[in-house]
Amino acid sequence: MKILNHVATSAALIFAAGTASAQTELNIAHVLGETSSYQIASEKLAELVAERTGGDVIVNVFNQGSLGGELKLTQGLRTGTVDLAFISTASLENTIPEMKVFSLPYLFSSKEEAYDALAGDAGQDMLNVFDNYGIIGLGWGAIYERSMPSTSPITSVDEVDGIKIRVIEAPGWVQTYEALGAQATPLAYGELFLALQNGIVDAAELAPDQTVGDGFADVITDYTFTRVHQLPSLMLGSATLANKLTDDQMAILREAAVEALTDGIAAHDAATEAALETMAERGIAIHEPDLAPFIEKAREAWPGLIDDIPGGMDAVNRLSSGTM
Questions:
Q1: What are residue 58's phi and psi, to 5 degrees?
Q2: pLDDT at 16
Q3: What is the pLDDT of residues 150-185, one digit of tens each?
Q4: Which domains does the chain show, CATH number per domain?
Q5: pTM for this model (two decimals)
Q6: What are the distances in angstroms from CA 259 to CA 30, 98, 122?
């Protein structure tokens, strides 16, 4: 666990009015490591908030799941035991069913298209949904383009048939990989390394930077760019922040969040490029198959999944910008 305490560098700022203000401490939590986009953005947020409030608001950063997994963090946001958190849309589905739209395979044709959609009105509409659940949608973070690290080559959709692949524990992900012909195997993330090492699963669905950063490059031989899901992350706040911060402080937090998220996205992009270089240096074979057959088979899962999404095809159409 890493906890960062950011304090004002100038006591004069705190005492400028002649009296000291009460200091407010907030927590921000996530499940990734110290080099992740979540951590970079969290540290930037803490720095900006401390600076712009003159040290009146301090943000402590908790990483690597030290305050719990993403499901626990989601509940913590709703009850107010967690002030701020980074969470992926897949982990939000049980609490905020509108997020299920992002589990549709090939919803976006590229990561760039996903970023564009979330930066527009559709993305803002999705952030507004959190107001109904006692959570504040502060902004969209890095998008994790999920492809297949594996222990054998996957160069076509036919080679997915029958493989055991670890997937996120969400219905959309299970049904997607079943449609592709794989044996979808939901496992906790912490179990994945040994599962790959011991042959319990043959593959996973991860972004390049996760594959290298979390050590999976040590147990795989191949990485196939299937780009099945563009998995967004979010910086979220608890609605109880309104009881802890003044209106001015809340405005500072919101503005700082936007800047911090930009830093996090840039860090994720750099980590992705570095991870691909690392995989190449280690002799991991990187494959770029024709995706048309993957798209055709994966989208066979769409009808059953769309029925479970609030707004159904309307939500899809607002986000996908005609990619169907």
A1: -115, 135
A2: 39
A3: 999 999 999 999 999 999 988 899 999 999 999 999
A4: 11-319 (3.40.190.170)
A5: 0.88
A6: 18, 26, 20
